[in-house]
Write a structure and sequence with these properties.
Helices cover 65% and strands 9% of the residues. The longest helix has 35 residues, at 58-92. α1 packs antiparallel against α2. The chain is built from two helices and two strands. It is mainly alpha-helical and 93 residues long. It is elongated. It has a two-stranded antiparallel ribbon.
Length: 93
């Protein structure tokens, strides 16, 4: 049987001197938003590779496919984040 191990890291607020904790859900939020940022970066990079005269040839087609895949990844990550929010709210009630 697998055990769920949770961990908290203590950080100290330098203005008040009191510790505050970062939970596992905070790490998940940071990770998801980092991946979304990387996907937006890929969209911007691929947009610079587009040749609007020949969208279906060479590097332009690969860039177009990369843009579509990055948009799909962003949608999947947002759906996952929404599912985690629903799970947190139903667990607390």
């Amino acid at each position: 049987m697998l055990n769920n191990y949770s961990f908290n890291i203590k950080f100290y607020n330098f203005t008040s001197g009191k510790p505050f904790h970062i939970s596992n859900t905070s790490y998940m939020k940071i990770f998801i938003y980092t991946l979304i940022g990387l996907a937006f970066g890929l969209i911007i990079f691929n947009a610079t590779q587009l040749d609007f005269n020949n969208l279906t040839e060479g590097n332009s087609f690969a860039a177009l496919a990369g843009i579509v895949m990055s948009l799909c990844a962003i949608c999947i990550l947002l759906i996952f984040r929404l599912a985690k929010n629903i799970e947190e709210k139903t667990r607390n009630h």
